[in-house]
């Protein structure tokens, strides 16, 4: 009788966990992917106490036959998250929000990196500590929502410090 109860309990537990399995598996995919969009590992830099902004970086690869557009982003660490571009205009480095998002050509790649396109975390809720990961979400016009985990690198990191090619 106790063997039957144990079997029923195990079956009930597995049944309860089954709906969560795809979500758990998706969280651990590396790199992240949604539809035809794939991301390299995302990263940001640690911030000193009192800092109110940080940047998020990764490479977007569009494996689809049609262009797509990153239209918005959110994160647990900032009250405002924007898609930004840095460019030299008339000899002056300027940063601006991309109101229409960032287009990624069919079969193309777009690298978000320091000094170029990036995700801007504005009004940080707390300092970012080296070694932790922070959650966010990207929204693409066609591919939809894509969860992203940003690994927090050292304060002055020039890149993700990873030795793989995009």
């Amino acid at each position: 009788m106790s063997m039957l109860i144990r079997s029923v309990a195990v079956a009930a537990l597995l049944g309860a966990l089954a709906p969560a399995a795809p979500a758990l598996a998706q969280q651990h995919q590396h790199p992240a992917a949604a539809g035809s969009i794939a991301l390299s590992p995302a990263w940001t830099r640690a911030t000193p106490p009192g800092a109110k902004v940080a940047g998020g970086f990764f490479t977007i690869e569009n494996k689809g036959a049609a262009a797509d557009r990153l239209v918005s982003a959110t994160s647990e660490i900032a009250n405002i998250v924007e898609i930004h571009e840095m460019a030299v205009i008339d000899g002056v480095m300027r940063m601006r929000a991309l109101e229409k998002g960032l287009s990624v050509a069919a079969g193309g790649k777009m690298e978000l990196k320091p000094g170029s396109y990036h995700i801007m975390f504005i009004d940080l809720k707390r300092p970012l500590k080296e070694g932790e990961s922070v959650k966010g979400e990207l929204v693409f016009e066609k591919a939809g929502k894509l969860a992203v985990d940003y690994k927090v690198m050292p304060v002055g990191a020039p890149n993700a410090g990873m030795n793989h090619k995009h």
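Residues 33-153 form a domain with the Immunoglobulin-like fold (CATH 2.60.40.1890). The mean pLDDT is 81.
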